[in-house]
Amino acid sequence: xxxxxxxxxxxxxxxxxxxxxxxxxxxxxxxxxxxxxxxxxxxxxxxxxxxxxxxxxxxxxxxxxxxxxxxxxxxxxxxxxxxxxxxxxxxxxxxxxxxxxxxxxxxxxxxxxxxxxxxxxxxxxxxxxxxxxxxxxxxxxxxxxxxxxxxxxxxxxxxxxxxxxxxxxxxxxxxxxxxxxxxxxxxxxxxxxxxxxxxxxxxxxxxxxxxxxxxxxxxxxxxxxxxxxxxxxxxxxxxxxxxxxxxxxxx
Length: 251
Description:
- The chain has one domain: Creatine Amidinohydrolase (Alpha-Beta Complex), CATH 3.90.230.10.
- Helix content is 28%, strand content 25%.
- It has helices spanning 7-30, 37-50, 117-135, 143-156; strands spanning 54-55, 67-71, 74-76, 90-99, 102-111, 160-161, 167-169, 176-180, 199-202, 205-207, 213-215, 222-224, 230-232, 235-238, 245-246.
- Helix 1 packs antiparallel against helix 2 and helix 3 (117-135) packs antiparallel against helix 4 (143-156).
- The relative contact order is 0.19.
């Protein structure tokens, strides 16, 4: 069931989202050659807790860390560990925080040092895909309108749009109804009609090559089938009568 939030509840979600935004800003500054992904995880965990919040991901369905760090061909759900970031890597950091019972969730893909031009473009276009989707997040539209905008922009550049993972509703739970796909699936019709008070996480996951992915033996990390890089960009937003409201990004 889709839950509708009041303006006061959306303001509370904005506070949780601000913790996520600040955490991602810190991680972006930390993402340099020589840093390990477990160092990113510890810094994020410490920072989130210093703000009176709790990391959403830690122990969620058994997930062992406080953030996800997905490097190069890893699409999402990479587990922080001993991997030492290298010059030319891209690192996707996905962060969730719970503050006063409300969740915020966002992700960014960071460039480390001398990243190739084609991969820089992938990261830029993935971010653009999010904003193309968000433009459609207005009352009266449907989820399909968001999905079509994302898919059209990504495929215009020849990129693969991941099907197996999607965005989601969010609020008092990290994952609520509805699912928010990044591609149009006629089998599911137009999807839910968007109304003011809905809060969703839109998160394009876009591959430089094929859209095909698979999961590693750790049960979490999803990687591209062809080994080419993938980028991830996500924000939590609220749908309002005055247009979409970003809850994890201040612009």
